[in-house]
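Researcher: Structure prediction, please.
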Amino acid sequence: MEKLQLLAQLQRDHAELQKRIARSAPPRPRPWHDQARANQLPPEGDWNIWLVLAGRGYGKTRLAAEWLAEQAATQPDREFAIVAPTWRDCRKVCIEGPSGLLKALLPGELDSVNASDLTVRLTNGSKIYGYSSDGYERLRGSNLAGAWVDEAAVMASVSDMFSDALMPALRIGENPRIVITTTPRPIKLLKDLVARTDGSVAVVRGSTWDNAANLSRTALAELRARYEGTRTGRQELEGELLEDIEGALWSRDILDASRVDKAPLSMARIVVGVDPAVTSGEKSDFTGIVVAGRSTDGHVYILEDVTMKGTPHNCMSAAVSAYHRWHADRIVGEVNNGGDYIGTVLKTVDANAAYSTVRATRGKVVRAQPISALWEQGRGHMVGMLPTLEDQMCSFTEDTKESPDNLDAMVWACHELNVGTSALVYLSAISTMCEQCDMPNSKKATLCRGCGTALAHAA
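Model: Predicted structure follows.
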């Protein structure tokens, strides 16, 4: 027993000696400094926030992981944080991923990893804690010397997390800093940070093509096929922070104002809307699959977007899975333009799934207008962040040429819930409806804000 105790003590002494050596060791040269592109290295200046707005595949994860690893390795006995959209993202992408934190640490720097509570300990006594954005309250009371926020644009409560929890926790050291890496979307936090002119924010922009040498030809081809030449592509590939489009039926501010983290537990109805692709080849459209629910007070909640590209059987299997996952009342699908196959394929996937068809008799804009009115009333809610769907909503105008697959599926689901009709009746009582395009307008308006037509009461 005494020998075992002595051995244990020797091990503890050895570990403590290693930590003392690590604490006092001079900074080591990091290979990343020679491998990185110039705009992947920290910018000059006395900044507090390094905001990296870049397209998919740019190398944002590697950039931030290397930066955070260096900060922690050169500041002994300090605490740092990683905040990602979900717990799984934090662990699988930011910490354990092929471009994550563990890969960025040099030999001898890592002491231990506790995957259950996302804690990485370094031999110099520093610790790096992982957090998910939906559990950001855990950040309160932390004493941090630095942090990395990954994919901030898809976090549901990112403004609250940033201002109420993360920033107050950055209070150790002379200049605690944050790196924010994200594919840009015009959410309030990002717009506010970009607008700062006091030098506290260093903004770096980049595109997918900057890192083309390290991306597979297959990945690049898929990204080009899906996004190149589109407004979404300017955002997803070029890393542009696009503002709202004039004339769009939704705006980012409206979506953010009514966004919720969770839908009510008791829903009056839940349906799955499907907007089918006519073909299933590489260049075909996506099949829109969106789950929406109506609460007992008449509010609509967009619960999930599982839009995908695939064979009819694969797409209908995804729709049926969503139907069962949400205990939905039925699946509703558009049958225009070759969508008649939905019912037949659904029966082969699940003959018991309730299904009904809809056929478009009016234009996409006219169908979507009464649904967008719900958000103007504060009766429409996005549950969490649904980035692709929201991008379509906020860029959808009468001039939209792309097929808004996700949006179409959402509109069909909302109409099936009868929320569009009830909203239109309500709006008719409190506003002036345009006879040309059915857009609700203020009682005092003289011209329709949708199409510019003179309103009847003002004629």
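Model: Residues 2-24 form the longest helix (23 residues).
Researcher: Thanks, that helps.
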